[in-house]
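In full, the data.
>
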Amino acid sequence: MASTALKRCLRGNSTVSRCCYRSMHAAGQRVPLGDSELIMGDTMERLTPHNDLLASPKQLNERLQHDGYLYIKGFHPRQAVLDANLVVLEHFQDQTNVLDTDNHPLGNGILKEGCGLGCVPFLEGRNPISHHPTVLKVLEGDHAYKFFDSLFNMPSATFDYKWLRGVHRQAFTGAHADSVYMSRGSNRLLTCWSPMMDIPLELGTLAMLEGSHRLPAFQQVHQTYSALDAEAAGLQGTGWYTTDPLELSQQFGGVWKTDDFEAGDVLIFTMRTFHMSSKNQTDRVRVSCDTRWQPAADPMDTRYMGALKGHGDAKFGLHNTDPQATPKGVTMDELKSQWGLVWSK
């Protein structure tokens, strides 16, 4: 049977309905994850929610330490998320007119033909949209503070910088650990990924490499790559370890897992848990946001606090695919060669 998220998709227009329908077929479904195509039930598995542990912060922490992530359904109020998504879509249309509202409702987020890299407005940082009251009601709502206060067993804090993104067709995020981008503060920092809409596999979902934060085979990777300060090293390009998920799972182990997500769901994970996203195979813009949380008493990475930040501050990730962005820097391939981590398929 179709999940609730897919049933909602099936009520949409025909374009959305056709792409969502394929997610009803879980076993054997092919998932384009970066440069490889993984098969559900074989080289990829479905995530299992951790909602049954919500009454016990101790068990949540134990599961976080074991799996490297927490998958919580309905973490945010669903309607609040959908309201925030509409704010984002309205901004996209007002700023760049990238949505095909002549043929589809604005809320469907259908991109105009030909919209690719650089077409969707950049929203990362601290700006009027990332910090719009309707958006912050989701990202920094009382429910979020209550959860993280309980998880840390002390008052929590979150970065001012928000990684709010719209992802166009065929785009994806490569495999990486967040430690390379934000290692100058708390060692208890966590990422919280929030889909701002229903996101079935075809829209490009986040995939976790379960166990990658702790498996012994990853020790050399964590002693080298995960310990890297990408900015200090002058790393060129995205900061991703690889765009091929099999480079990690076949060499070092772990299981790639993902799911069809609903507005309100979250994935919370450690700085050393490898993750990436599948390709957006649709004409819709996929909207999601990363926030970072930590104990308020711990030192914070000051690069992500305070003044407004703009496109020029996006040194790494999806919006920096130009390997020459840091001309005098070092490439990931050069570093992996130095570390003895070159992969031969």
Q: What stands out?
A: DSSP finds ten helices and twelve strands in the chain. The first strand starts at residue 30 and ends at 33. The mean pLDDT is 89. The first helix runs from residue 4 to 10.
